[in-house]
Fold IclR family transcriptional regulator.
Amino acid sequence: MIPDTAQVPAADQTLRVLSFLARQRGPVAARTIADSLEIPRSSLYHLLAAMAAHGFVVHLESERRWGLGAAAFELAGGYARQQPLARLGRPLVASLADHAGENAHLAVMIGRDVLYIVEERAPRRPALVTDVGVRLPAHLTATGRAMLALLPREQVRALYPDAAAFADRTGRGPRRPGELREVLRAVRAEGLATEDGEVTLGLRSVAVAVRDHTGWPAAALAVTWPEDSGRDGAEVALLVGDAAADLTRRLYGAQ
């Protein structure tokens, strides 16, 4: 039986706020939330403060706007691991690995990390660190960059406010917000993301994001191969792009 929401008004309003933010293309002002949901502004600020303390929302002070926080991504990642994303993605990742002849994987974003939920290893190819359940810094991975490039710039600034937010694995990759902005600008221009030895020396990757019905990055597909294999990166990128488009159609229909 569904409980009467009048018995739990704060819980009801909290869930309504989270659902509202999830439908937006980017962070919004508190006044917009209050007016849209008909919640008294004083009550809304108390709700937002509590949600921010638990990481479900983030306040962008310079913009005076509110957006979803890392904990909300955690919930989205948990749903993805248990439901259609992994199930529908698994055969596509297997097919991608077969056609490319290289390792392929599917990842979702959780805060500043990517979480790998499906991986398919090609014959006679080395094992990768991108095993199922592994997390890696999003700004270093092709999958993470593909998803970060689709987030509102304010959201990226909130995730990477300063140099302390940038983890390092091989000495390569962006280490400051300005460097990450340049990387993401290139991803948006090309429609795909790459990385070269920033996760593991000697390995390259190309990734394309899977967008939901609002254009939000739900996941990303990628292929990884040894840099000395002589592979044509453009050819691999076409295969990854086709697979990402196929998964998008299966999840959300024609867009």
About this structure: The beta strands are 57-60, 65-68, 103-110, 113-120, 135-137, 193-196, 203-211, 217-226. Residues 233-252 form the longest helix (20 residues).
